[in-house]
């Protein structure tokens, strides 16, 4: 989530990433030196948050307490890490619970750093980023997948670029809860589970059959464990095939239980390993995968590279915003003019309003490019259409909270401005909305030149606009907009003074 009061440290060499998965929580710490990532520490706890997801969408209190206790321990390890050097993301279970806002607030309190929820597509992008960075560089086409506790991400890409991304609602915990909750295994139950997994894959299978890949790679716990089983059993050097997966399933049918010891599978993974193996078997069958190897890196390593990119101004979100604007035929020249003016005004008031330039600057720029996207749907109330698009479309690099913040600014760049529009994202965004509105007002048309020496000064919620009255007389439409703006700002609890006749 954008933090308007912080200043990110680009000089900090230690960074950390936390993956709040449905099965396990992972913390990874690294040092960035000479353009190389050196991993320093890893922590993993099998929290199994997915087991605590109730049918009504709530999170079981006992499981929530276990998750928060884990985050408190992680927080102790990260106590000396400055703001902005840690990125924490929640995946499938946190996407599914109905009290996520309450949990995120408690999680931030325990961890000492904010927690974000990312979409399935964003999770897939980060997984591919992590895998692509851990293998030999090149332009090979590859299929990458990660079987988590609650979801499975499947990505086709080439080199460092993911091209097809899907997040499927099946994982080792979810599959185990659905078909093997009592711990018993039968051939009939495995068959039902394989069919269910196949039904989940079928709608997207054609998207992958249109491509051919030179290598298939799997990431994270389930696939690493399957590769280890194949190696320990002497079936291969760690290569996974459909034949080896069938052997694993037959082994469970023979013994009739999910928690049987299996060489290559850790004790804490035993109860959910079968569910993950079934998901992988279905993927092999439906996507016609011949063989696969396990990769060492995945989502959390992808988070580290993504975080370092943000700190060094190589932010994937900039590209994503630009691409979305072009997709909806935004007038890019006008968007740039609005962005530049809003950012210029931001630098004039940042100190008075205690705004951190780094995140505020990005928010304003990206909102300036995205507020017109709704014009492709309709001109009437286009700001509402724009806000809906921004909040719900996939913007690579953005968390759900970040997209909600952008959507609020987009929604309020014109017309009504009230505190209720910012209840879910924070009223500290209102000052940015005001700056964006002024940027929009002064750039409504390019037929007139912008006023020289335009300045804004603020004192709390009082805003004084300094612009030559002569210019306003020559541009009556802008003057009328500013007079209307006085009323809109009043509804949000702000006052604005504009020049009157001298």
UniProtKB/TrEMBL annotation:
Its main location: membrane. Its cofactor is Mg(2+). Residues 28-307 form the Ppx/GppA phosphatase N-terminal domain. Pfam families: Ppx-GppA, Ppx-GppA_III. Its EC number is 3.6.1.11. GO terms for molecular function: exopolyphosphatase activity. The keyword ATP-binding does not apply. It is a peripheral membrane protein. It comes from the Bacteria. Residues 316-485 form the Ppx/GppA phosphatase C-terminal domain. InterPro entries: ATPase_NBD, Exopolyphosphatase, GppA/Ppx_hydrolase, Ppx_GppA_C, Ppx_GppA_N, PyroPPase_GppA_Ppx. It is an enzyme of class 3 (hydrolase). The keyword Cell wall biogenesis/degradation does not apply. It is found in: Cell membrane. Keywords: Cell membrane, Hydrolase, Membrane. It catalyses: [phosphate](n) + H2O = [phosphate](n-1) + phosphate + H(+). Homodimer. Belongs to the GppA/Ppx family. This is Exopolyphosphatase. It comes from Gilvimarinus gilvus.
